[in-house]
Structures are given as C-alpha cells and as structure tokens.
UniProtKB/TrEMBL annotation:
Domain (NAD-dependent epimerase/dehydratase): residue spans on this chain: 4-236
Signal peptide per UniProt: none
InterPro entries according to UniProt: Epimerase_deHydtase (IPR001509), NAD(P)-bd_dom_sf (IPR036291)
Pfam families noted in UniProt: Epimerase
Domain of life: Bacteria
Gene3D superfamilies attached to this UniProt entry: NAD(P)-binding Rossmann-like Domain (3.40.50.720), UDP-galactose 4-epimerase, domain 1 (3.90.25.10)
Protein name: UDP-glucose 4-epimerase
Family designation: Belongs to the NAD(P)-dependent epimerase/dehydratase family.
C-alpha cells in the first residue's frame, strides 16, 4: 500500500478516485482549493490541505508528507473559460501543474499520473476512433496547456528519469459531476430532467462526443499507478454518441420526454469526437464496462437521491 497525493481530490473524478484508493488500503492526502470541488465529497479518511496548487505552501506539504505517488487532477477544466481568461488557465493548468511536478522531483516522489484530455487535444480529427498517434493541434488554451504539461512530464523523464503516465480522458460523466463543467452535458440534462426543468441544446443535437462513465475512469487511474509507461493513454468508450442520443436515453430512463429548448450552435464547437482505447487495453488491461444506457440510469438514480458521502 502506498502514500498517495490526489490534487483535485474534492472534485468529481478526484473524490471518486480517493474513495477507491482508500478502500484499497492506501494512505491518501488531498490538496484542493475548493474552486469547483466540494467538502462533502471529501473522504473523511483522507488528510485534507485546502490550498491552491500555485501556492509556495505546496513545498512544505511535499517536504513534510513525502508522497510516493501523485495523481495530478486539480485543474480549471472549462474550455470556454480558458478562452475568456487565458492567463488564469495558464496559471492553474500550467504554472500550478509545474509547481506540483517540481515538488514531486525535489521530494523524491516515485511517479505522477496526469489527467489530460482526449476531447480537447486532437481537435476535429479525421480518424475516429482517434488514436494517441493522431496529430495534436488543440483549438483552445485549455487544450494547449494540457498538452504543454504533457511535454514537461516527458522532459522530466528524459532529463531526470522521473516516472509518469498520462491519461487522456474523453467526456467523463456520472455522480458528483460539477454542473458548471462543459463536459457535464449528461449531468446537466439529468439534473434538469429530474427537477422537471428545461435543458438547453445548442445546435442540431447531432454533434457527437465519447462519453465514459466515472467508475471506468477510476479503474484506469488506479491501474495506471502500477504500470511502467511514460506516455499518453486514451480513456474513452470508443463510441460516438450524439446529444439526441443522450436526450433519448434520459427520456427512456425517466419514462417521459425531457424538456429541451433548442438554440443556434456555438461558433467553433467541435462537431465530432471519439477516442480509440486500444492502447489502454494493451498497457492497462482496461476497457470500458458501463455503457451509456447503464451509466445514465446510474446517474439518474444518484441525482434523485444525491447520496453525498459524510
Ligand atoms: N470531466 C471530464 O470530462 C474531463 C475530461 C478530460 C479531462 N478532465 C480532467 O480531469 C481532472 C478532474 O476533472 P473533474 O471533471 O473532476 O473536474 P472538477 O472541477 O470536479 O475537479 C477539479 C478539482 O480541482 C480543484 N482545483 C481547481 N483549481 C485548483 C487550484 N488552483 N488549486 C487546487 N485545487 C484546484 C477543484 O476545486 C476541483 O475539486 C481535471 O484535470 C480535468 O481537466 C476531465
């Protein structure tokens, strides 16, 4: 069992990962400034530091705790916010990430696992499902900063021998998802439907995304700490689903048509996205197990009862 830091451990993916790592018997520490994370999601068995990843105080935490493994998940994760305020995105997603990385090196951390993005790195790829070898020309500052940090990791490996693995997530969905997030379309539609509110659909609804369920993503994150692979691994379902598919699945699960208002599409919005998970199969022995219908059912059950952990 290991001593593990999870940055962003009060967030959607981070808090679910923390629960799993603790259930497996690891000692887990969380760093989070609660920008979008929630105290209610923090596992009470985890030690919690409420601090910004950019802060110089991070150094003292690393020197005191001496982590073995670090999951770096803390991020500003909205593409549109990165376009409105590129400097803020750069501060959190690059300077903050670099602060974590440099402290890993200085304090003797064995490995860092980084949550990158498959949805915002490849752009409008010709090849779908898109493999990791596809050209990466992001069309957002969020994507650029994620990709740049991937390069920092590789540089640290080449120069210092520092071990890492990168997971490039598709659109993750499920219980605890932050509603402000753009990737949160399933959560937003589910929440509105359960509360009998109207959701807004931009565009014709035929735009596609690759939706991957939270529990599958956590399985991939856990597996990543035990493999030796200094590179990028896509974590997606390999399936393209449209917004209309999502509407239909939620309506089916609830037994009635959900309320949706249609508005014109947003300029520059990506039309299609879908990731190949072949490399994840080879390296992590991972494949998605929860399909969209099942995942939506589970998300609805959670949204109806909102079982927030103590
Ligand atoms: N959700 C998705 O579909 C998706 C897709 C691709 C990649 N990712 C990546 O996965 C990671 C987790 O995303 P999520 O969906 O759980 O989002 P989230 O917003 O729920 O979690 C991010 C966490 O980071 C914390 N945080 C933000 N800025 C911070 C700072 N400056 N200092 C300390 N903590 C800070 C937030 O409070 C939050 O708890 C992010 O790195 C995100 O970019 C998510």
């Amino acid at each position: 069992m290991s001593k593990i830091l999870v940055t962003g451990g009060a967030g959607f993916i981070g808090s679910t990962l923390v629960d799993k790592l603790i259930a497996e018997g690891n000692e887990v520490i969380v760093i989070d400034n609660l920008f979008s994370g929630k105290k209610e999601y923090l596992n009470s068995a985890a030690r919690f530091y409420e601090v910004d990843i950019i802060s110089p105080d991070i150094k003292k935490i690393f020197q005191t705790e001496k982590f073995e493994i670090v999951y770096h998940l803390a991020a500003q994760m909205e593409v549109s916010k990165s376009m409105e305020n590129p400097m803020f995105d750069l501060d959190v997603n690059l300077r903050g990430a670099f602060n974590i990385l440099e402290n890993c090196r200085q304090s003797g951390v064995k490995k860092l696992i980084f949550s990158s993005t498959g949805g915002a790195i490849y752009g409008e790829s010709e090849e779908r499902p898109t493999p990791e070898s596809a050209p990466a020309y992001p069309v957002s500052f969020y994507g650029i900063h994620k990709l740049t940090f991937e390069k920092y990791l590789n540089c640290y490996y080449q120069v210092y021998g520092f071990d890492y693995t990168i997971l490039r997530f598709a659109n993750v969905y499920g219980p605890r998802q932050f509603k402000g997030g753009e990737a949160g379309v399933v959560s937003i539609f589910v929440d509105n439907a359960v509360e009998n509110k109207t959701s807004i659909q931009y565009g014709d609804g035929l735009q596609t995304r690759d939706f991957v369920y939270i529990d599958d993503v956590v399985k991939a994150l856990v597996a990543a700490k035990d493999v030796t692979y200094q590179g990028e691994i896509n974590i997606g379902s390999g399936q393209e689903s449209s917004l209309l598919d999502i509407r239909r699945d939620i309506s089916r699960a609830l037994g009635e048509k959900i309320k949706v208002q249609e508005k014109p599409g947003k300029p520059g919005e990506q039309r299609r996205s879908c990731l190949s998970y072949q490399r994840a199969q080879e390296i992590l022995n991972w494949e998605p197990t929860v399909n969209l219908t099942e995942g939506i059912d589970r998300t609805i059950t959670w949204a109806k009862h909102k079982n927030i952990p103590k």
